[in-house]
Amino acid sequence: MMNLLSTRHAARQRSYAWMVLVAYILFLMLPLYWLLMMSFKTNQEILSTFSLWPQEFTLQNYVTILSDSSWYSGYINSMMYVVMNTLISLVVALPAAYAFSRYRFLGDKHLFFWLLTNRMAPPAVFVLPFFQLYSAFGLIDTHIAVALAHCLFNVPLAVWILEGFMSSVPREIDETAYIDGYSFPRFFTKIFTPLIAPGIGVAAFFCFMFSWVELLIARTLTVTDAKPISAIMTRTVSASGLDWGVLAAAGMLTVIPGALVIYFVRNHIAKGFALGRV
Amino acid sequence: MDLSWMAWTTPTAIFFVVILCLMLSMWVWELISPGGQPRRGILRFETTRGDRLFVTLLGSAFINLAWLALVGPNLWWALAVCGLFGVLVFVFV
Amino acid sequence: MKSWNNKAWFLVLPMLLLVAFSAIIPLMTVVNYSVQDSFGNNEFYWVGLEWFKEVLESERFHNALMRNLLFSAIILLIEIPLGIAIALAMPRRGWGVSVCLVLMALPLLIPWNVVGTIWQVFARVDIGLLGYTLTQLGFDYNYTQDVVDAWITLIVMDVWHWTSLVVLLCYSGLVSIPQAYYQAARIDGASRWAVFRYIQLPKMRRVLVIAVLLRFMDSFMIYTEPFVVTGGGPGNATTFLSIDLVQMAIGQFDLGPAAAMSLIYFLIILLVSWVFYTVMTQQDADSAPGRGQS
Q: Which of A108, A110, A120 to mutate to test the interface with B (most CBs of B within 10 A)?
């Protein structure tokens, strides 16, 4: 936009803009760089010398994590409940979002607001009753318990995002399909779902993201069998006398899945954050 | 299934039943005589009947809390204030 | 216009049941706990509104609430203008866009306790880059001892973690402005400020409301990051409502007071999100008919 203003003044602004941008990205990357470098150092080196990069490069920290099942099972557990949660959220959110985007019905706006309040409710409020509720059903320490609990904030989010994407599909498409004799389920799966595929991708990404980053509920509902990696990290840190290198490596490994999935949705991520309403 | 952990008491049960009844009666009211288009009241934004019920309930919660903090634990008068507040909301907002 | 069809309730029903299971049963339980005292073993005694009174009058609650409000206010004052500035600085096309978007979104996808760990390590005076450098430069910096340092660390961490969200939202608002607007502005000889004030800001208003809403809510219920970095200390200086609540409910198992506090906390959140939601939908109603289009 500013390159349209082809004056010298604008050119100077442009270079200021670059400086701001580069400074901000440097600020974002520095802590991550530090974590990455720490994960390649030995614990001794971290504690004894201060250096910007590892003096003795080692992969031992990663080996420790990837060869010990009490460590790497945390990643598997996290992945399992995150994937379950994403699937459940999408399956129930798709028809609901369709209803919100196509029809008016009694109480629709209030229902929508109620969904918003669930996204806004502090997890701390729900932690204890969740524990009691899932104990009553005998689900403590299972993946499905965490997956269901995370639905509290992921289903509303998925409904919003999908509703935004669905509203941009013209209503005439539905009407034409019904006139052509499509039943609702067939229309929904054969015609409509492919049309909003990017929206489903973004919604899945956001469910993945918020389930992946949440710790409080996941930690409360699990004991050992379904313990997420982030909870294992906190426990091991306090028990094993602070092995900083391993801690950094474990942290680094939790960053990677996020970095991978961002790449696929980079062009839609903002629309998703705006709940599909940009 | 054991539900004792939910620790139900008669007053809280009545509380939830009353709220449920309020919502059901709003539904019946809407069926008998539809409220139609939202309107703009003294707060300068559009509200429907449901919105007004919500404002009443949320406002009542805060009135009760304020009464408890400033006046004392006898909330019957606070409830009376809430009733008045509700009527005002339904008429003017 | 959307057609009026009450059968749409059947499409919403599965979602409703699932969320109600996760939201309403726990909420009812919290209400039940808030009027009773418990000595474990699911034995409860009616105490009426005792806990509400206690929480409303307790210093501990007031202080935690004030800390939360102060933290949210500072966060909004820093992150919203910074986010707008960076969104304006971002390139509109070319390879730079993808690089910026991916790098900026990275902090958003790091588990919250890992964010805490990263900053805890980064800010330590003995092994952290930030803490070490500051100490070498002669600053008396120690976030585990000094209240101001702890607050600064948490605020910088939150800016690091969440400013990108504001940037992404503003950016998506900016790219939706047609080039014709800028051309018209150039022909009129509009200043840079006028372009921002009359073209870019109105277009961003909608996403900015969402940004403020999300940032306020998430900073108001912040738990994991400060818990990992400072543990609520030094003293109680960074004990926010959520931290206090979890400590009370799980640490001390004071179900009654914790439940009463939860409800008051929840009512505040309900009020604020209702105000935001009303503002948001009102904008939609004022600017264009129908939701979800722009």
A: A110
Total number of domains in chain C: 1
Q: Give the E-state strand segments of A80-186 in sequence order.
A: 103-104
Considering only the beta carbons, identify the residue of C19, C127, C249 that sits closest to A128.
C249
Q: CA-CA distances (angstroms) from residue A139 to A142, A215, C62?
A: 6, 18, 37
C16 touches chain B (CB under 8 A): no
Tell me whether residue C24 is in a domain. Answer: no
* Structure confidence by residue, pLDDT tens digits, C199-255: 888 878 878 888 888 888 889 888 888 888 888 778 888 888 888 888 888 777 788
Give the domain CATH number at C89: 1.10.3720.10
Range of the domain at C205: 58-287
> A99-132, pLDDT tens digit by residue?
998 888 888 888 888 888 888 888 888 888 888 8
Closest CA to A248 of A28, A45, A22: A45
Half-sphere exposure of A137 (CA within 13 A, CB side): 18
**d(Cα B92, Cα A37) in Å, to the nearest integer?**
64
Asked whether residue C68 is domain-assigned, the answer is yes
Give the tokens for residue C88: 């304006």
Q: For chain C, which ranges sit under pLDDT 70?
A: 1, 40-42, 284-294
Domain ranges, ordered by start, for chain A: 2-39, 65-273
Bridge partners of A104?
C4
Q: Parallel, antiparallel, or unpaired: how do β-strands C3-4 and A103-104 relate?
A: parallel
Beta bridge partners of C37: C45
Q: Which of A106, A132, A137 sits opposite B27 (nearest CB)?
A: A106
A107 to chain B, any CB pair closer than 8 A? The answer is yes
Give the span between the Cα atoms of C67 and C62, in whole angstroms. 9
Who contacts B5 (Cβ-Cβ below 8 Å, separation ≥6)?
Answer: A132, A135, A136, C29, C42
CATH class of A65-273: mainly alpha
Q: What is the predicted ipTM? A: 0.86
Distance from CA of A138 to the nearest CA of B (A): 10
> Which of A130-139, A168-177, A268-277, B54-63 comes out lowest in average pLDDT?
A268-277
**Which residue is listed with tokens 């009058």?**
C57
